[in-house]
Amino acid sequence: MIIDTLTGAEPNPFYPAAIRKALRAIIHQEPHTLPAGKYTVDGDTIFFNVVEGETRLLAGLRPEYHRQYIDIHIVLAGEEIIGAGNRGLEIVEDGAFNTAQDIGFCTQISSETLIHLHPGELAVLFPGELHRPMGSLGAGAPLRKIIVKVDVGLV
């Protein structure tokens, strides 16, 4: 996982080209003005969703993971706590993996780190890294964010 800012990550030469391409596309579309919905950058290999919702108490959220796509969570307005665990932690599945949606859930994150994102900040989560997005440590609050999907085959 990587924690950064949208404007700092986009020009960073250490990021794979596909990630920089996705971030560049978002910046050029003025993300704060985009309505909620799905946006395509490069077919099914790079796309993003603008999401408006409410954070929920982190303790009540199920950890999730992906196999095909890298997730990039970018906060536009509000604050988000993401519980995350590094790749390689044991995954105790909580139901069958949904291949069509590239999402699986598990019962816990055994060694969890809390990522606190503010507007303009992002977290990159790679396939197999457990995470609990849309979280808060207290009462829920409005959150506007972007979730980018980059096919791991591009990196």
TrEMBL record:
Gene3D superfamilies: YhcH/YjgK/YiaL. InterPro entries: NanQ/TabA/YiaL, NanQ/TabA/YiaL_sf. One of its GO terms (cellular component) is cytosol. It comes from the Bacteria. Pfam families: DUF386. This is YhcH/YjgK/YiaL family protein. It comes from Silvania confinis.
